[in-house]
């Protein structure tokens, strides 16, 4: 399998510091190749004011890259938010190390 290309939206350190000696960050968009996309079941949450559809998918990355909970990823033209930090997916009992797992979510209002 060759996987797909997705776009990782994140903040990266510029190497500069502000007047409080904190790192200055900038937005970055990086394409990630060889990503496997697996659908999860969506949950429909019904509220008194609106109905919301929540779609979740799981990405399997060829190598850990540092995806964080504050990041977003565009898959097949749709932008998702990251649910927690990426998880290193290694077997532990052998040298097999397939990469990292990232879970994504997107919520949208739906009409009845």
Number of helices: 0
Percent helix range: under 10%
Poorly predicted regions: none
Order of helices and strands: EEEEEEEE
Instruction: Please give the alpha-carbon distance between the first and last residues.
Output: 39 Å
**SS-based structural class?**
mainly beta
- Order of strands, main sheet, comes to 1-2-4-8-6-5
Radius of gyration: 17 Å
Description of the molecule:
With 112 residues, the protein is an all-beta fold. It has one domain: Thrombin, subunit H, CATH 2.40.10. It contains no helices and eight strands. A six-stranded antiparallel β-barrel has the order 1-2-4-8-6-5. This is Head-tail adaptor protein. It comes from Curtobacterium salicis.
Task: Note the main attributes of this structure.
112 residues; mainly beta; Thrombin, subunit H; 8 strands; 0% helix; Head-tail adaptor protein
What's this model, at a glance?
This is Head-tail adaptor protein. 0% of the residues lie in helices and 62% in strands.
What order do the helices and strands come in, and which of them pair?
Blueprint: E1 4-17, E2 23-39, E3 43-46, E4 51-61, E5 72-75, E6 78-82, E7 87-89, E8 99-110
Antiparallel strand pairs: 1-2, 1-5, 2-4, 3-4, 4-8, 5-6, 6-8, 7-8
Protein name: Head-tail adaptor protein
Organism: Curtobacterium salicis
């Amino acid at each position: 399998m060759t996987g797909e290309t997705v776009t990782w939206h994140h903040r990266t350190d510029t190497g500069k510091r502000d007047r409080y000696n904190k790192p200055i960050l900038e937005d970055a968009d990086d394409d990630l190749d060889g990503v496997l996309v697996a659908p999860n079941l969506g949950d429909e949450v019904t509220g008194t004011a609106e109905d919301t559809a929540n779609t979740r998918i799981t990405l399997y990355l060829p190598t850990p890259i540092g995806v964080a909970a504050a990041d977003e990823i565009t898959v097949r033209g749709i932008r998702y938010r990251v649910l927690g930090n990426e998880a290193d997916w290694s077997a532990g009992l052998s040298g097999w190390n397939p990469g990292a797992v990232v879970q994504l979510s997107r919520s949208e209002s739906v009409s009845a």
